[in-house]
Design goal:
The complex is a heterodimer of chains A (about 250) and B (about 325). Chain A has about 250 residues and is an alpha/beta fold. Chain A has helices spanning about 35-55, 70-80, 95-105, 130-135, 190-195, 235-245; strands spanning about 1-5, 10, 35, 55-65, 80-85, 115, 140-150, 155-160, 165-170, 175, 200-205, 210-220, 225-230. Chain B is α/β, with parallel strands linked by helices. Strand 13 of chain A pairs parallel with strand 18 of chain B.
């Protein structure tokens, strides 16, 4: 089973975001970057599937700056076999040019599965994975929480508002992983040592022109200061009074 | 003049409320472009697009066929892309729901458009301008979509439906038969017909302060009284107390209810990011220094096991009164 996992380097979810002097981007200084948490589920699923098949290869692909090599190494430390960085300094806020670059890399790869996290936690677009499937004209199920594969066919569940959709498809396919699909493994020390020696190819690319222009990036409006209405259960009437008569939400 | 297409969403043949919000977004852009706001409703035979003039639609196109009752990713994308190709569309609006988030990138890929998800406002200024949260609400982008069509997924509860004095027309569109590459064969209903945390106008969320999974019944009772949904912090989802579908925060759902209760939630930065656009935030926590109080509009410092039952009881009286 040959599996590609596409990953993204993103600021850690606990990181504070500082807006750069240009007012349009994030100041990276001092920010801890991690493998996008949803991509961890995709990496784990790829490793499990390869292990179950007893043979195969897991290739980690990323589009991004040179520093994304570190992100790819994280996935290699989890157990993936090799990495490819499609290197560009472009911000990649428009998902379609990113998807085109990935589709061009993956199209002749002979992959049975192409996995993504359902979204990156920086811009949360849910775009690139599904777009790659469209460009490659492959079956695609987005945001899956379960996966069964047998005889070149698959069934996945995806959570929707008030229910779960059961979706059938055949391989090769593109799937994007939601939380709950599996429990991602932590890279062991041995894996981290081995990852340093695994092949990681860096290809310089140019993304197509973005169809999105950033006019500004700003902090959200400060919420107005709140107040403590009281202590313990005796404060409940004051709270309800405030919700009804001040906030007018009850 | 380019028109704007609003892709509407139905469940079991009934239009979802968020579709009115999507039409409102389409109306704003259509007025800016000097074009028309069109709806596209995809569903099973007999699905109706009547009465949407009152929500701002000039025309609603109905694509009804056997097999389209449920969201079918490829077939829905084909219908939407065909409609975009058949008209002069400057923008396509969808709801940022499970369906919309999956459909929007498909439409953008098929039409060569630019995609912006989770928009909290749209306007027209020589191009489609959207605001959308980044880093789960820690910052806000203002973006101009320069590729055509601009494909925008609109966050539920972010925009108010409009009321228009329009008759609105309905046209049926032909749907090509065929199979999708992937097929939705079943929609499993949950055991309880719980409201989704991203769509509910009231959310009652709990954190580690609840101490045990069983104690979430306290939140369920309050949610039931207020007609709301139960939410959960990352800590309790990771502990397996609640399903991931209820998780609020940067690695869960970003929510915009009019009223949000954070009960026994300390207020980690990634959780706060997910509730920044909530209307009114109420925090109940025994630790007066918990960061959640800084984000809250109203707080009660106290033992949630004493405060919650009282709150549920008094809220019930208020609702019944």
């Amino acid at each position: 089973m040959k599996i590609a996992v596409c990953v993204k380097r993103v600021p850690d979810s606990e990181a504070r975001i500082k807006i750069a002097a240009d007012g349009k981007s994030v100041d990276d200084a001092g920010v801890k970057f991690v493998l996008n948490p949803y991509d961890e589920y995709a990496v784990e699923e790829a490793l499990k599937r390869k292990e179950a098949a007893g043979a195969g290869e897991v290739v980690v692909v990323s589009v991004g700056r040179d520093a994304a090599q570190e992100t790819i190494r994280t996935a290699l430390a989890m157990g993936a076999d090799r990495g490819v960085l499609l290197k560009t300094d472009a911000a990649g806020l428009d998902p379609l040019p990113v998807a085109r670059a990935l589709a061009a890399e993956l199209t002749d790869g002979g992959y049975d599965l192409i996995l993504f996290g359902k979204m990156a936690i920086d811009d949360s677009t849910h775009g690139v994975g599904v777009m790659v499937a469209e460009l490659l004209e492959l079956p695609c199920v987005g945001a899956i929480s379960t996966l069964e594969l047998a005889d070149g066919k698959g069934v996945a569940h995806r959570e929707v508002e008030g229910g779960v959709e059961v979706v059938e498809f055949s391989l090769p396919a593109v799937l994007t992983a939601d939380k709950g699909l599996n429990e991602p493994r932590y890279p062991a020390l041995r894996g981290i040592m081995q990852a340093k020696k695994k092949p990681l190819e860096v290809k310089d690319i140019a993304l197509d022109d973005a169809g999105i222009e950033v006019l500004k990036l700003e902090y959200p409006p400060e919420r107005k200061a709140g107040r403590i209405v009281g202590e313990g259960p005796d404060a409940v009437p004051a709270l309800l009074d405030a919700l009804r008569n001040e906030a007018k939400v009850l | 003049m380019p028109n704007v297409l609003a892709i509407l969403e139905q469940r079991d043949g009934t239009l979802k409320k968020v579709s009115h919000e999507v039409l409102a977004a389409a109306r704003i852009l259509a007025d800016g472009m000097g074009g028309e706001a069109h709806g596209l409703l995809i569903g099973g035979s007999g699905v109706s697009g009547d009465g949407l003039g009152a929500f701002g639609a000039d025309t609603v196109f109905v694509a009804a066929a056997e097999g389209l009752e449920r969201y079918q990713p490829d077939r829905y994308a084909a219908v939407a892309a065909a409609q975009v190709g058949a008209g002069d569309y400057g923008a396509v609006m969808v709801a940022a729901t499970a369906m919309g988030k999956d459909l929007a990138p498909r439409v953008a890929a098929r039409t060569g458009g630019a995609l912006a998800a989770d928009a909290t406002s749209v306007s027209y200024d020589g191009g489609v301008v959207v605001t959308r949260p980044a880093y789960a609400g820690k910052a806000t982008y203002t973006l101009k979509l320069t590729a055509t069509p601009a494909v925008v997924a609109v966050r539920p509860n972010a925009m108010a439906p409009i009321q228009a004095d329009k008759a609105g027309t309905v046209q049926t569109v032909a749907v090509e038969a065929g199979e999708g590459r992937a097929t939705t064969v079943e929609m499993k209903q949950p055991e309880s017909a719980a409201l989704d945390v991203a769509e509910a106008s009231v959310v009652v969320a709990g954190g580690r302060g609840l101490k045990e999974a069983e104690h979430f019944t306290l939140l369920e009772e309050l949610a039931a009284v207020l007609g709301g949904a139960v939410g959960a912090s990352r800590a309790v989802v990771d502990a397996g107390w609640r399903p991931h579908s209820e998780q609020v925060g940067q690695t869960g759902k970003v929510v915009s209810p009019s009223l949000y209760f954070a009960v026994g939630v300390s207020g980690a930065i990634q959780h706060l990011a997910g509730i920044r656009t909530a209307g009114t935030i109420v925090a109940i926590n025994k630790d007066p220094d918990a960061p959640i109080f800084k984000a809250a509009d109203y707080g009660i410092v106290g033992d949630l096991f004493e405060v919650l039952p009282r709150l549920t009881e008094e809220a019930k009286k208020l609702k019944e009164g």
